[in-house]
User: Which sequence fits this backbone?
């Protein structure tokens, strides 16, 4: 039985639930709903956890309860508990440096200034893990207030215009995740990286 581990990054709690920073949570919540699988709190994994089976594979979904800046604590707990190699894990995360609607699947790389990825790299002591980055676009630039702008942008709620684009992204990402057990990763990577929201 093949096992696939998906970790969505975000902040727990209702007040963050519609934030751009919670794209990882939103994607996996939609995937779990599709298969009627509910998230349950698992303190030992520092996450909420859901599971379903598809095409002879078990999909395990995790939403860390550690808050974004300490995502690495949850990912390390998951890796240690299941004793899995890092190529089995896929981190789904927002990226303000990618235009809204763009997707990037990479097998390794730096944090790009993302605190969730930074925490995971620190805890795992490697940047050699799969990540699917979802573009949320960059904040409007106002001289002298760059940091505040970034924080208010990523912690701002997704607008209705953004949601219509992210719904297309969500559909593509979920379709690709569903194929992880039957298609080569290189194929999935090509599908996601070449995604064009305007051609749907």
Assistant:
């Amino acid at each position: 039985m093949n096992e696939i581990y998906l970790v969505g990054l975000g902040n727990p709690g209702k007040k963050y639930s519609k934030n751009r920073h919670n794209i990882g949570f939103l994607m996996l919540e939609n995937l779990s709903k599709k298969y009627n699988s509910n998230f349950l709190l698992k303190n030992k994994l520092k996450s909420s956890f859901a599971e379903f089976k598809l095409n002879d594979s078990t999909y395990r979904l995790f939403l860390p309860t550690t808050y974004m800046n300490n995502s690495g604590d949850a990912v390390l707990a998951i890796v240690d508990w299941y004793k899995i190699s890092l190529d089995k894990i896929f981190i789904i995360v927002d990226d303000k440096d990618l235009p809204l609607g763009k997707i990037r699947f990479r097998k390794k790389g730096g944090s790009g200034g993302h605190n969730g990825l930074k925490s995971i790299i620190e805890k795992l002591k490697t940047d050699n893990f799969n990540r699917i980055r979802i573009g949320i676009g960059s904040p409007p630039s106002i001289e002298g207030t760059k940091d505040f702008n970034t924080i208010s942008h990523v912690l701002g709620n997704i607008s209705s215009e953004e949601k219509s684009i992210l719904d297309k992204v969500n559909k593509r990402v979920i379709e690709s995740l569903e194929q992880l057990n039957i298609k080569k990763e290189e194929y999935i990577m090509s599908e996601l990286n070449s995604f064009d929201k305007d051609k749907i």
